[in-house]
Specification:
The chain folds into 2 domains: 113 residues, no CATH class; 44 residues, SH3 type barrels, CATH 2.30.30.60. A hairpin with a 2-residue loop joins β1 and β2. The model has no long low-confidence stretch (mean pLDDT 87). The protein is an alpha+beta fold. Strands 4-3-2-1-5 form a 5-stranded antiparallel sheet. Helices cover 63% and strands 14% of the residues. The radius of gyration is 25 Å and the shape is elongated.
């Protein structure tokens, strides 16, 4: 039994596996450093936009910063980690070009088609928040709806109408906004 175990160790560590594992660890470390550096750079690039938050109260500022920085940071990490995983799998001997990449493209295509409306609303909501078109508490006219903004999210904007009704508008459908609170 001991001879079998010693032979197994000699086969594994005498093969290219230790070298491949070392390269995989190196790729993972490079990916982590790259995410850290790019996140730092992204925060610096968004600093002027985040300076506008200083007039908001603390809870609104945190919510605003989570949206403004959260989506780009999530996209950055997702792309860097996906590329790192593909490189690591390649080092470990998997044929990623023939097996995983077409599958990944198909999954992304199906998810995009399936969630197109949600993605459209989320993108519109992101840019509404990024541009600071209106915020909670602002009196606005959106299309033919008037009211005070009670909730602003990525997918929808909720207004309290002049008659007290709660109106939810999908952000992807918002084309024109008149903000009565922000003066010239």
């Amino acid at each position: 039994m001991l001879d079998y175990f010693a032979g197994y160790i000699a086969r594994v560590w005498g093969s290219t596996l230790p070298n491949r594992l070392a390269w995989a660890i190196a790729v993972a470390l490079v990916a982590e450093v790259l995410v850290w550096l790019l996140s730092k750079r992204l925060r610096k690039a968004f600093a002027p936009v985040l300076q506008r938050d200083l007039v908001l109260d603390a809870t609104e500022r945190v919510k605003h910063r989570r949206v403004i920085l959260g989506l780009p940071l999530l996209a950055l990490r997702s792309v860097v980690y996906a590329v790192a995983v593909l490189i690591i799998l390649r080092y470990l001997g998997f044929n990623t070009g023939a097996e995983l990449v077409p599958l990944l493209i198909a999954v992304i295509a199906v998810a995009t088609v399936t969630f197109w409306g949600v993605l459209k609303d989320a993108a519109a909501g992101y840019f509404i928040i990024y541009d600071g078109l209106y915020a909670e508490g602002d009196r606005v006219t959106i299309g033919d709806q008037n009211g005070i903004v009670t909730d602003l999210g990525l997918r929808y904007t909720r207004l309290r109408g002049t008659d007290g009704r709660s109106i939810a508008l999908a952000n992807g459908k918002i084309v024109a906004v008149i903000n009565h609170t922000k003066g010239t």
